[in-house]
Write a structure and sequence with these properties.
This protein has helices spanning 3-16, 37-43, 48-55, 64-73, 78-87, 104-111, 132-138, 151-157, 170-188, 193-204, 206-212, 261-272, and strands spanning 118-122, 127-130, 224-229, 233-243, 249-255. The protein has 285 residues and is of the alpha+beta class. The chain folds into two domains: 3-87, lambda repressor-like DNA-binding domains (434 Repressor (Amino-terminal Domain)); 104-272, Beta-Lactamase. The chain has a five-stranded antiparallel beta sheet. The radius of gyration is 21 Å and the shape is globular.
Length: 285
């Protein structure tokens, strides 16, 4: 681990960013060149003290998970991310594994989307990053670990995952998820995490096994869908998908038609966020 090289690199990348580059308000008087350390820490979901120690050549060797979080917060390119891993004394992420380093280009778009749900997914259906609106609509995806990080896995193993969609859409959603997974399986190979996911699902879900045998392949998402929010009820939204060049990641943006009921519900969701929505007491005093 080259502490001096890592500290100098982190400092230079932090100072090269402006708040508006990462979706933050620029504020009035800023004495700090570029981002502040506490802003990077928030973006990386770590303590300010921990990040500060990295820039001051102190503290333990950061884990691969911590390095990935810092790389995402600083909007590093793949080459810059690999350099960070190398000077930190860690192996660079394998190019054959599923992409967990979020595309900086997609992040720049996501940073500018604050008033509508948007999230970036890996080709295995893992939520790599989501804005506040998407978190309020779907819940915090960072709580999932292991195979459950994949929305495909949760769809076939966790009944609660299907509560976001009307029951009459479940069959279509199942086919779409399996077809997308087969596309990822074809590009990543049988020994990849895609292969691990397929083998696990074939053992645990008869529905998945039957759909997998159909050999359907696709890399797309429904243009129009109905989502269910536990308090707001159904929302009809349009889904726009923006893929990276290698199609390993996709930015999904959900919007509602102007002046529609769904648009009003999304505005309410944007205001209240994670707060519990008021309900009418059926048995008032």
């Amino acid at each position: 681990m080259d502490r001096a090289a890592m500290a100098a690199f982190l400092r230079s990348r932090r100072e090269a960013l402006r708040p508006e580059d990462v979706g933050l308000a620029p504020g009035a008087r800023r004495r700090t060149k570029g981002l502040r350390r506490d802003e990077v820490a928030v973006l990386a979901a770590m303590s300010t003290d921990y990040y500060t120690r990295l820039e001051q050549r102190r503290g333990p060797q950061p884990s691969e998970q911590m390095l990935s979080a810092v790389a995402r917060a600083l909007r590093l390119t793949n080459s810059e991310r690999d350099y960070l891993f190398q000077v930190a004394g860690r192996n660079t992420p394998s190019p054959t594994s599923t992409a967990t380093h979020v595309s900086p280009a997609l992040l720049r778009v996501l940073d500018r989307l604050a008033d509508t749900p948007a999230l970036i997914l890996s080709e295995l259906g893992e939520t790599l990053v989501q804005n506040g609106m998407a978190e309020a609509l779907f819940g915090d995806a960072s709580r999932y670990k292991g195979l459950a990080r994949s929305g495909v896995y949760r769809w076939f193993t966790d009944p609660d995952e299907r509560s976001h969609y009307p029951e009459d859409d479940h069959a279509r959603q199942s086919r779409m998820l399996v077809a997308n997974l087969r596309a990822a399986y074809g590009s990543m190979g049988t020994r990849s995490r895609a292969g691990e996911l397929v083998r696990a699902l074939e053992k645990t879900s008869e529905e998945f096994a039957a759909l997998w045998a159909r050999q359907e392949v696709s890399r797309r998402f429904e243009d129009h869908k109905t989502l269910i929010h536990p308090e707001l009820g159904p929302l009809e939204v349009d889904c726009q998908a923006l893929f990276t060049e290698d199609q390993s990641q996709v930015l999904l943006v959900l919007t509602a038609s102007p002046r529609s009921e769904a648009e009003e519900k999304l505005k309410l969701l944007n205001v209240l966020g994670h707060e519990r929505f008021p309900t009418t007491d059926p048995h008032p005093n």
